[in-house]
Amino acid sequence: MTPGRRTQERSPLPSTYTPAPGHRFKVGDRVVIKRSFPPGHRRTPYYIRGKRGVIERICGAFPNPEELAYGFDGEPRKVLYRVRFAQNHVWPEYRGPAHDVIEMEIFEHWLEPASGSANPASPDELG
Length: 127
Known about the structure:
Elements: E1 30-33, E2 52-62, H1 65-68, E3 78-86, H2 87-90, E4 101-107, E5 111-113
Antiparallel strand pairs: 1-2, 1-5, 2-3, 3-4
């Protein structure tokens, strides 16, 4: 390696990541996880469905793991977001610090815009 120059080794396999220019949500948007219970393999846990959170970041677009699980190619790619939830909203019995959060990566087709003021997005708007 020459001083002042950075080199990067190439991975033998292409990355599955692609940018997500057509994403539906932006960082800071309030969302709710769909209450949907389709049969088969789903990447979104049951306990988070129906919960409200805030988009923390846009991770990119990836092959859909719900299709890959059945041997399909995972296309079209789905946008993946990291969503932040108040810990005591997800687990009402939680007795830890009120500002604790859970962050979870959720694909766009599981998200809906949150409406109304019943959004327990705090602590401090989960920022």
